Amino acid sequence: MQIKKFMVCASVLMLVSSVSIVGQAANTKDNVTPDPKDNSKKNAAEKAEPKAPMVIQADNLKYNEETGDLFAEGNVVVTKNTDTILTDAMRGNSKQTEVWIDGKATLQQPGTNLVGTSTHYNYTTHVGNMKQVKGVVGKEHMSGENMELFPDKLIAHNGTATKCPAIVPDYHMSAERIEVWPGEKMIAYNAKFWIKNVVIYSVPKYETSLVKGEGETPFPRIGYNSHDGFRIFQYLEYPIADKLAAFGDLRYYSKDGFKPTYGVIDRQKNYTLKLYNGNLENSDDEWIKIESEFMFTLKPQRLGKVVGSFTASNGKWIQGDISGWRQDYKLYFQRDPIQLSKKVTLDVGTGYEKAIYGYNNSVDNIWSIDTRITAKPNDRLETWVGYSYRNESGKSVYEYDKIDIPRELTSGVTYKVDKLNSVGVKVDYDLDRDTVKDVDYTWSHNLHCFDADLTYRAKRGQWNVKVAAVKW
Questions:
Q1: What is the reported pTM?
Q2: What b/e string do you get for 332-359 counting C-beta neighbours within 10 Å, with b at 16 or more?
Q3: CA 264, chain centre distance (Å)
Q4: For the chain, is the Cβ count within 10 Å smaller at the N or the C terminus?
């Protein structure tokens, strides 16, 4: 009878409720209620999903057709579209598409899994709140005394964020208020940055990009290089306006001294603008000083199975006695990996670059082709071989960006020894000179939430050591 009653009630509920449901605690007095002036809440109705049935599973279920009130108890699972709530007991209203949960509840959405108490949530508008929350948003392990939920973002009050899942994380950030737009950006107010139980620094406002491939770790990076000596890097960013921020990439080398890069960056939806000054070093240990360089970066654009990227820059470059303005325009197309077999993939890319040097009014047109075949016979072993070709109409006036090897063959292998360690060898071969340029041996070790790499560059007799927190 109990099962029959549940099935009947659930069927009625699915017909009556053509909307979504959500959860708020019975006692909401202490909950942080979303600000009615918040733009996310203002636009919630506009972003509400098309009508869809809400499905409730429970050991016991009571439902009032007239009022829409409902009560579920025992192994409760509430699902609507991509939203799911798991709890032991809840009350709600199908007409208001809301749920209230006094005890522990788990809210699941694509890329999000939050566990908290005193939950209130609306399945139609995706607006709600939770208390004493812990969980995962994207790649961030987050917590908050109170957390506000919106269709496009969440706000954690007196919260923390880290990529380190330990009970006492190797590193984390705490803040009075953390705003997260999943997959887009994160802003924290009165933020403190911790290594273990020690605060290493604090800032009144902190912002970082959550877009894949963007963003810098806010924690120090340390290392050693035979050419530069010991080094320590620290990246800082401070929001000025909604999408505008000041940044500083502070770098100190025991042999070269202080070599910072600093400026402002404006991240728009489809492009990024950056104005900066600083010192840059390439993989051949060559330095360039850059003054007032303006850079435009178009967000990657997909055309079927091909992704296109474009950058344009103009700035003053100084290297030794050579000084002048340099313009650069770079267009590149990368195809999605081609699956040659279950264990072998092919990557192909091609591009064009135009560099204009004010020092002697010269122009260099560069056409490029890159290919790489990667084989993964098993979970431990990976091998690859790649070919790069550069065709130039001229030559750079700076050593920093000169193309040393127009036709280069690279190959390598990495082997995962165990859960924490892997070893690898990489060989760079100059096809024009018929000679090996570099042979690099690398040992990588996972320090739980830090990554350490030890590399020996045999052809140069150099040692490189890198230790950095896992990227945000």
A1: 0.75
A2: bbbeeeeeeeeeebebebbbebebebeb
A3: 20
A4: N
